[in-house]
Amino acid sequence: MHKSDLVRLRHMRDACLEALSFVKGKSRSHLNDDRMLLLSLVKCIEIVGEAASRVSDDMKSKHSGIPWREITGMRNRLIHAYFDVDLDVVWETVNGELPGLVKRIESIVPGD
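Given the sequence above, the corresponding structure tokens read:
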């Protein structure tokens, strides 16, 4: 494994875990009123996508179960959406997608 891939995967994992910690004990309705929560989650998703875009093609092909293209695409949509972010998509991404992504990354990255 390239050292840079290891760094990127750790960035992805850490940003996922951070986002999950932000939503712990919260419901979807919190996104309507808590702008800081929304911006924090968007930033975490952006970090995951940016790190994923920098993972080597070799690593991506070895771990094709990770939806690399979709992760990067989500990041691109968020970066360019500015004030037109779909709160339901953000909530579903964090709660529905990130836990599984963390498990996949942790199966690749040696324990820290």
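The mean pLDDT is 93. Try to locate this feature in the token string yourself.
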